[in-house]
Amino acid sequence: MRVLTVIGNRPQFIKAAAVSGPLRAVADEVLVHTGQHYDDALSQVFFDELGLPRPDHRLDLGGGSNTAQTARMLEALEPLLAREHPALVLVYGDTNSTLAGALAGAQARIPVAHVEAGMRSYDRSMPEELNRVLTDHASDLLLCSSQAPAEILRGEGVGGEIEVVGDVMVDVAQLLGPRAAARTETLARFGLTAGAYVLATAHRAGNVDDPVRLARLVALLAAVPYPVILPLHPRTAARLDAAGLRARLEQSGAVLAPPLGPLDFTALLHSARAVLTDSGGVQKEAYLAGVPCVTLRAETEWTETVDAGWNVTADLDADAALAALERRPPAERPPLYGDGRAGERVAAAIARRMGV
Ligand code: UDP
After folding, report:
1. Ligand 1: which atom is nearest the Cα of residue 9?
2. What does R_g of the chain's alpha carbons equal in angstroms?
3. Which of 156, 168, 204, 347 gives the lowest tally of CB atoms within 10 Å of its CB?
């Protein structure tokens, strides 16, 4: 059985790292990298540190608007699917590569499996939300991180088969956690003391593309009364430079770092006092690492982390974010996202679906 996996950006490299091994035990995997993230700091380092196999096809289709990028991917994937003739197309998460893979597969009448299905922010202004909804409704096998997204999919009446497999990021966190904990040089490199700093990430279009929102984000980060380290996504770096706001952040004492590889990032996460982020994956990783999270968005798809008391959505309200940073985390941290064997379950669900 041949499975064609479409990935293209940082969070997808991480998720695919949990699945690729178990999948290759039951299928021939053809790995396609769309090139949505092409920067080495956002791409190659993840393949190297996570042991992800080399892509069989690199499409180099980064850049441009969401619509143009998705269109270019669709155009490139159609002949590739015809040539490779896979029994199933596998996609992850909520990016343009996810939607392009799912739609190209569905148009070619090839079954599509979606990992991290059923996530919803109910904010259609987020490009990711459109990608999620459309991908789920084009997919035949909807593999969910927990019961909540499975319920959402049932409520939406999707046509595909729904299965809760757990979250593949738990698998990766269990793998990276001990390796990252041993990496004490990362904190030293940035002059940070364990438990005394805040790790921040921001790159959502809704926070960095609008200059007014970007200025609010900078003011919020500058007001944090602890050392802040901010590994800068290239999009955020470009927007800060265009708005002339980089100096403001530097003057506040924030450490501006390049995008980090997964081991360095996980090392900083594990020793942080708290996390400030608009990332989806980082909210979940903070929960898994037992680090309180303040989410720089008005809503989140990862509602269980909020219900468990480990995550607070503050949007870009500095007072709310600073108050949330002072909260003590709850004593309990239930295993919301499975046992770290989601990758095996994804592979098993695909094999079952294909009758292998
Ligand atoms: N990440 C990383 N280095 C960084 C920032 C993030 O390795 O400098 C990782 C992080 O651990 C997480 C993933 O990238 O697993 C999150 O990706 P991102 O925030 O780009 O996407 P999202 O999860 O919001 O889709």
Report:
1. 20
2. 20
3. 156
